[in-house]
Design a protein that fits this description.
The longest helix is centred in the first third of the chain and has 46 residues, at 2-47. The chain is globular and about 85 Å long. With 370 residues, it is mainly alpha-helical. 77% of the residues lie in helices and 0% in strands. Helix 10 packs antiparallel against helix 11 (278-289). The protein has helices spanning 2-47, 52-79, 83-116, 130-137, 139-170, 176-184, 191-202, 214-221, 235-261, 265-273, 278-289, 291-306, 310-315, 325-335, 339-366. It has two domains: 2-116, no CATH class; 130-366, MetI-like (MetI-like fold, Orthogonal Bundle). The model has no long low-confidence stretch (mean pLDDT 83).
Length: 370
């Protein structure tokens, strides 16, 4: 009896071991097969002489289907592991690809830029902190720092201020959704597209010629002389900042409007009963109540202002005293081919953005955003 039981237990152990080995083999085979399929699709897209229609169709099927298959395979493999391991690994099945993309397209390029920032134009000779010394002493760089500061103050203040004002006013009218949709519409336009549109607003023709620019057309209609708005320093920076305000006011309005909906009406009514005016209610009740939302919106637009590039590049190309940090980085890297200086300026920009991002995420954390 004991011998029979031992033989049965032994066969059971062997059988369980065979099942485990089979699961491991299958778990290894399926990811390898999935990778092989994806690699075959990549080779086809890279080397195929097929028509563009077929290549586009394969790219769509291969791209979407390949990503779906990777998620399915990864989830299948993790679910066949012991329960404790599954619980620890399963979140990374879905977060892992995002982390991998961030590492490949953000972290590694940042580290490479940091490395290149200590070398000369051709990335051959080590120059220490010379590129950073250039970034903080060059006249054009100092100009770009001051201009970015102007973008932060006026751009953020203008967008948040107008967004708050419009949100307060739209909340009191019947056609709220219509007005909000119209004001939010510029958000659908890219920064380059907005620059092209506003070039027609600021367009200049000499006196006596037909003015195709909207602003000069208005000026000459009232008897004034047309102005080359982009050459008027430092006002030309303000004219460019107006475009950012036009684009971001809709975003600020939508977020602030959502926060306003959460202000308890009982508190507002209590203020009115106590005799407070509407301005006093807004200043003492509404704004303190939505302060965290205002901070979040402000920090988001500050980040946009710090890395602003498209508007300046499209409108003035950084001429006439309108350089910003990103435009200087672009010129040093791709126009003057000085990879050391370009990388150093990029690192300076990253260091300037990080504290704002950290503060923004901290505010999200306080509001249980994560």
């Amino acid at each position: 009896m004991t011998t029979t039981e031992n033989r049965t237990d032994g066969r059971g152990i062997v059988s369980q071991a065979m099942v485990t080995i089979g699961r491991v083999a299958v778990s290894l085979f399926i990811p390898l097969a999935a990778f092989g399929i994806l690699w075959a699709g990549f080779i086809f897209l890279r080397d195929s002489n097929a028509s563009q229609g077929i290549i586009a169709l394969v790219a769509i099927i291969w791209g979407v289907g390949g990503v779906a298959m990777l998620f399915w395979v990864a989830d299948w493999v993790v679910n066949r592991m012991p329960l404790q391991i599954t619980k620890k690994l399963q979140p990374f099945v879905f977060v892992g690809p995002a982390l991998a993309i961030l590492a490949w397209y953000l972290f590694l390029p940042t580290m490479r830029s940091l490395y290149l920032s200590f070398f000369d134009a051709q990335s051959k000779n080590f120059v220490g902190l010379a590129n950073y010394l250039f970034a903080f002493t060059d006249a054009k760089m100092l100009e770009s720092f001051l201009n970015n500061l102007m973008w932060i103050i006026l751009g953020t203040g203008g967008a948040v201020g107008f967004g708050l004002l419009i949100a307060l006013l739209a909340d009191r009218v019947k056609m709220e959704k219509v007005f909000k949709s119209l004001i939010f519409m510029p958000m659908a336009i890219s920064f380059v597209g907005a620059g092209v549109i506003w070039r027609f607003v600021y367009a200049y023709k000499p006196a006596g010629e037909d003015q195709i620019g909207l602003l000069n057309a208005v000026v000459t209609f009232f008897g004034g002389d047309p102005q080359a708005w982009f050459t008027l320093q430092p006002w030309n920076n303000i004219f460019l900042i107006v475009i950012l305000v036009w684009l971001q006011t809709g975003y600020a309005m939508v977020i602030i409007s959502a926060a306003l909906k959460g202000v308890p009406s009982s508190i507002i009514e209590a203020g009115r009963i106590d005799g407070a005016s509407e301005i006093r209610i807004i200043r003492s009740i509404v704004i303190p109540y939505i302060a965290s939302t205002l901070v979040t919106v402000s920090t988001t637009i500050i980040i946009i202002s710090l890395k602003i590039f498209d508007i300046v590049f499209t409108m003035t190309n950084g001429n006439y005293g309108t350089e910003v940090i990103a435009s200087m980085q672009y010129k040093q890297m791709f126009r003057f081919l000085h990879y050391g200086r370009g990388s150093a300026i990029a690192i300076v920009l990253v260091l300037a953005v990080i504290p704002v991002m950290w503060y923004n995420l901290r505010q999200f954390g306080k509001r249980e955003g994560f």
